[in-house]
Amino acid sequence: MGFSKSDSIEKQLKLIFGKNKMKSLSHKFLALILIGLCISFTGCIEINTRYAYQKDGSVIIKEEVVLTRRLLDFKDKAGKSLLLKHIEKAACEERAKLYGPGTTVISHKIKKIPGGATVLNAEYKNADMAKVFLVSPFVSFTNYKDTRMAKFRVKPMYKSDAYGAKAGQIELRIMSLKKGIGMKRPVKDGPPILPPDPAFLQNYRDLQPIFKDLLKDFKVSVIFESYASVYTGYGYRGRGSQPKKCEILSFSGKDYDKFGVSILDNDEIMHELLRHEFGEKNIIGTVAQFSRNKTVPVMIMNGSRHARWGVRPYIALHPSRILFDKYFKGKSLNYNAWGVRKTDKLIPAKYENIGFDRGRKKKETKKEVPPEKKPEKTPAKKPKK
């Protein structure tokens, strides 16, 4: 089946599936874009969201949206862009509600960049990280369409957790607003899980060139930033350099698979993406490499039957002075991570021991001892004749 470059994405889909079937399939394709980008829009879009955790416990959400010229060409009958209204300040103020109660817009800028694209840079603020919402990174859940939003659970750790953060840290656990349902796993002595029928996959093979063009410049990312070094239970990049940020979700048409091939040229991965099966083995096999490979996508693999053991969706960091006074002042810490024992030692929490700048403070307070001066030699007196 061939298509003309002038054919719209919508027209090409109708030719493949028929008008009625396309309507039902569109729901799966919306999930592919994660942000609800309508499939009838040809072109590219970038949405980058950063959650910057502040020393006082508040969070600044930095939102960057890039609309390409191809997207801006979609106009209504009056000749106005169908998308520009979604990045105006009024739309951002309405969207602030989606980031959680109490979120307000503190900055809004729109600019044009070379190539005809328009960029939105907006900043939102919420006084409480626990009230903030984010796009769920658990895309492997089979009911993802019902669990697309998540939140941070803020928990000061007074006792170390073998499957979580250590005592003296603040744990930010990423949790779906609704309970996710994982993929079915093979049952011992039960029927095997069969792969899709080849005839069924043929429809997606016909779609692959269309979506390859659609996704080549597409990007969506969710990044956590902090005043302190971060640690995660699901992996992060740059571990040796103690980074102050980590990716929660990242997908781009410029990503590669684990073999170094463009992800858009990997037939198996593209078929899984188009079927909205983000937890299947080819995607998970590539995503599992992200902590040591900067070219592959990032997502938290909970819900996939192919995920490696020990994936814990939390971010941990040490407290600032303000957060120490709020959560740890006057408390005792238990560093035993395995249950409770009578022999456990409770250690009083001290900022100089668990504060985010504890190492720096020790270096500053350490006095430099000047080198000892050697006594000057006095010249020997010459004997009198």
Radius of gyration: 27 Å
The dominant shape is globular
User: What's the N-to-C terminus distance?
Assistant: 120 Å
Q: What value does the average pLDDT take?
A: 83
Please state roughly what percent of the residues sit in beta strands, choosing from under 5%, 5-15%, 15-25%, 25-35%, 35-45% or over 45%: 15-25%
Tally of strands: 13
How many individual helices?
A: 10
What does this structure look like?
- The chain is an alpha+beta fold.
- It has a domain at 9-58 and 127-317.
- Helices cover 23% and strands 23% of the residues.
- It contains 10 helices and 13 strands.
- The protein has helices spanning 9-17, 19-33, 69-72, 89-95, 198-215, 267-274, 281-287, 321-327, 351-354, 358-365; strands at residues 45-53, 59-67, 104-113, 117-126, 133-135, 149-156, 170-176, 219-226, 231-233, 245-252, 312-317, 332-334, 346-348.
- The strands form 3 sheets. It has a 6-stranded mixed beta sheet with strand order 3-4-2-1-8-10. Strands 5-6-7-11-9 form a 5-stranded antiparallel beta sheet, with no helix packed on it.
- β3 and β4 form a beta hairpin.
- α1 (9-17) packs antiparallel against α5.
- Residues 1-10, 12-19 and 21-43 have low confidence and may be disordered.
In short:
The chain has 385 residues and is of the alpha+beta class.
Comma- or semicolon-separated keywords:
five-stranded antiparallel beta sheet; alpha+beta
Task: Please render the helix and strand layout as text.
Elements (H helix, E strand, L loop, with lengths): L8 H9 L1 H15 L11 E9 L5 E9 L1 H4 L16 H7 L8 E10 L3 E10 L6 E3 L13 E8 L13 E7 L21 H18 L3 E8 L4 E3 L11 E8 L14 H8 L6 H7 L24 E6 L3 H7 L4 E3 L11 E3 L2 H4 L3 H8 L20
Parallel strand pairs: 1-8
Antiparallel strand pairs: 1-2, 2-4, 3-4, 5-6, 6-7, 7-11, 8-10, 9-11, 12-13
